Amino acid sequence: MKKHRLVILGGGESGVGAALLGKQKGYEIFLSDGGPIKPKYEKELIDNQIDFESAQHSLDLILNADEVMKSPGIPEKNEVVKAIRAKGIPVISEVELAYRFKGDSKIVAITGSNGKSTTTALIFHICQTAGLDCALVGNIGYSFAKQVAEDPKALYVAEISSFQLDDIKDFRPDVSVLLNITEDHLDRYEYKFENYINSKFKIIQNQTMNDYFIYCEDDEVIMEKLRLLTIHTNPLPFSMKHEVKKGGYIKGDQMMLRIQEERVSMSIYDFALKGKHNNYNTMAAGIAATTLGIRKEKIREAVKNFHSLEHRMEFVAMVRGVEFINDSKATNVNSTWYALESMTKPTVLILGGTDKGNDYSLIADLVKDKVKAIVCMGLDNSKILEAFKDVVPVIVETDSAKKAVNTSFKLAAKGDVVLLSPACASFDLFKNYEDRGSQFKDAVKEL
Question: Global pTM?
């Protein structure tokens, strides 16, 4: 009997993870990457005797696939993808492959335009605190497929991006979380917001009445879409504007969670994560934990002692009375809006990078209220200069993390905050947002 031939496009974390799982399950595997493959991933492929090519795509070896697993970073307009589609070869994502072999394990899947990494990490932290056999996987940086292959768990807490949802077929989380939907990545969705919304809602397409769907009732885009859909899952909304019968809400300074008989209440002042946006993230995480049967004492304990993620509103240092915060993961304007919204001190804001069609008017009011100076950190800062020239008295251009930090420190007074929250991608000056955040932190430590 002929082996199922799975061709994998992309030799990064998800591609290599899928290759390892496919090989373990008896598939014939061929991995192809148009660019160079990192040495650590190349070594894994060689050690596991997996056929691969790098810095090229051999169409004859790709187009004889029974199925193709496409890494999330590869867009539909890629020529190889077009050729695969034209031939009618089924395309799946890595999370679909992982789902196929997960066995009886449960999945909590989290998506949204902003806050998904933080919420995913918090849910995982609550599950760990409660002693569950669980793993943190997906878009947060760990291959779901590799986890299933090498160290299967009873529960997977998975951050899922819209790109990963685009190519699912049967993927069905037991608990899905949709935090919010704002315009992002529209270059991948033919610049149609509706396409991006549809992609996010694929997280519930296979759910049944045995599953749960946790979503923000204060998000107009989500609510508008829900009015058009018939959903086949158990809805658990959360809100800060009104009480909900089932789900979660915040009234005054109290968070209330109600799922079946179990009720949890706690003060928002006890949350480790501060800011209105994090109140939403904490509610979503608390509801997810409750659906898993985690006791309220454990939820309270975990929510109190959670440490936020690296590069996401991460406290770096206090230098002569000036606080430095690394929010390098803010790669769109909405993320920066959330960061500014939680600022309570005069702020020197470091902005800039590769613009993704940003509309800076979204943060103009917050900048006017909270920001005393803007330090640009990018190769082309013209849009930022134009957007804020009449809003902020001081705008300075720099072209490195070190210069941006030194300039910001000079502009800040004791009691101020220097906030790196760039609202842009990082590819003009840095390898990625992690590199940008790390260089920022190194420069702060040198002050």
Answer: 0.81
